[in-house]
Amino acid sequence: DTEVTQTPKHLVMGMTNKKSLKCEQHMGHRAMYWYKQKAKKPPELMFVYSYEKLSINESVPSRFSPECPNSSLLNLHLHALQPEDSALYLCASSPSSGTEKAQYFGPGTRLTVL
Amino acid sequence: SQKIEQNSEALNIQEGKTATLTCNYTNYSPAYLQWYRQDPGRGPVFLLLIRENEKEKRKERLKVTFDTTLKQSLFHITASQPADSATYLCAPPADRGSTLGRLYFGRGTQLTVWP
After folding, report:
1. Are strands B109-114 and B10-14 parallel, antiparallel or unpaired?
2. Given an 8 Å threshold on Cβ–Cβ distance, is A97 in contact with B101?
3. Could you read off the pLDDT of B36-76 as tens digits, one per residue?
4. Among partner residues B34, B43, B105, which is closest to A108 by beta-carbon distance?
């Protein structure tokens, strides 16, 4: 299995809702990432997990809460989001978080916050 | 702070021609640079990685060069096809010493290949 899967593909939520995004990979990769991408902009790194431990948090607001229950699974818990948080949320994985490692991206979750 | 610039937001070329995309960086010297392809509404797909001590890297119709003097990487697609139409992203590490996979994506160049 050489792909990263993300669910759901689309999500619409109100500002008071709590929802979660899920990402899964079965390539044995030990690093996993969350990115946010707005229209016509490049992906922006949010979080990096290395060996199931959070190693980078790019000053992301606390209304985004990542979780890595095991080496294959990555979640992003969402609470009290703002309309400006609407974006494509991408998950990626790589064999490790070391240098020169290609990142394998999932198809993304298109999030709309009303 | 470090800065990545891709030469243009859009590039339109005729099928069969060579597409050349440019990535310039300033204020630092990345040890390597990656190139990704992104189709609308999809995640980026890794294409090639080139290290600072490599002048050129090839993969099928793709060629990447890395000129540390000019602080520039060029990405070429030879014999371009309409299926090559996509946004191409340049991605060096966010800092030279990054060991945690922190990539800094350029804004991308949207390539359109017309028949």
Report:
1. parallel
2. yes
3. 999 998 999 999 999 999 989 999 999 999 999 999 999 99
4. B43
